[in-house]
Amino acid sequence: MIYLNGEFMPIEKAVIPVLDRGFIFGDGVYEVIPVYARRPFRLGGHLARLQASLDSIRLKNPHHDSQWQKLIERLIELNESDDQSLYLQVTRGVAKRDHAFPETVTPTVFIMSNPLMPATADQIENGVGAITAPDNRWLRCDVKSTALLPNVLLRQLAADAGCAETLLLRDGMLTEGSASNAFVVSEGVVLAPPKSNLMLPGITYDVVLELAQANDVPLEVRNVSESELRGGEEIWITSSSKEVLPVTTLDGKAVGKGRPGPAFRRMHGLFQDHKAQLRRTANG
Ligand code: PMP
After folding, report:
1. Which of 13, 70, 144, 195 is catalytic?
2. What contacts 146, CB < 8 A, 6 or more positions away?
3. For the whole prediction, is pTM greater than 0.90?
4. Following DSSP, what letter does each residue of 55-91 receive, concatenated?
5. pLDDT (tens digit, 9 = 90+) per residue, 247-274?
């Protein structure tokens, strides 16, 4: 079941007009929210980032947070899995094709749910491969825009190479992955590129920073150079669907010892404990 413009319906019934500006221009923003034990994870963070994206593209938020929460809770109820992945999209709506904003238009609001597909045991035990590429995206990578063609092309480079992710370099610095944030462990310190217009402020990135700080994991939020990326003992990628994953090959070469490292294992454990606590609150 999905939600589209005021109605819940099976996805097969959902249609949007061809003049929707999301379809014509990619003129919209989105969120992906994981749901554990039927509870949306960090909903407040996702709704705050949605508001920031909407503000950046000068689109009025069609709903207050309490309305979003009700819609999301209802959609979770209407779908089967306890663990879900919600995809929420707002576009500037349907209007005659013209680049400038239409004067009056109602935004299109779409929310769908899929079963959450977490990382596999193999990915956690053995890590995943990544490649690097120049970050050729625009200068507003902090906006979670549905216009993802650059990210699509960059991710396809990884797929072509049989890898899971493409890590992006701009002016000699690591920005993020095509669909994830990236961390490097160097001499036992977790290095996190700072939030800026050059990366998406990941909700999972925030969780990792919080868990590191709360558990005295050595951490530095600062620019990470290409040589630090290539020389790091460990590389991690994070996203709402995959949580934290170890990258064990980069451009075909082993990262550190070529196995998920001790800092990853620690962070993975902290993340699982954090989720288990939330599940207990949900059940109790
Ligand atoms: N960067 C990019 C480019 C992304 O698309 C994503 C989400 N898939 C992330 C980072 C991670 O963000 P989050 O942890 O909020 O899923």
Report:
1. 144
2. 22, 26, 27, 28, 29, 30, 89, 91
3. yes
4. HHTT---SS-HHHHHHHHHHHHHHSS-SSEEEEEEEE
5. 999 999 999 999 999 999 999 999 999 9
The owner of tokens 């009700």 is 70
Closest CA to ligand 1's atom 12? 202
Ligand 1 atom nearest 31 alpha carbon = 15
Report the pocket of ligand 1 as residue ranges, CB < 6 Å: 32, 151, 176, 179-181, 200, 202-205, 238-240
Residue 195 among the catalytic residues: no
The mean pLDDT of the chain is: 97
- Report how far ligand 1's centroid is from the alpha carbon of 201 (Å): 7
| Structure letter (DSSP) for residue 10 | -
- State yes or no: pLDDT of 45 exceeds 70: yes
CATH 3.90.550.10 fits 2-115, yes or no: no
Residues of the chain with pLDDT > 70, as a percent, come to 100
Spans of all domains in the chain: 2-115, 121-278
Instruction: From the CA of 178, give the closest atom in ligand 1.
Output: 3
Angstrom distance (rounded) from CA 28 to CA 147:
7
Residue 177 near residue 167, CB atoms below 8 Å:
yes
- CATH 1.20.120.530 holds for 121-278: no
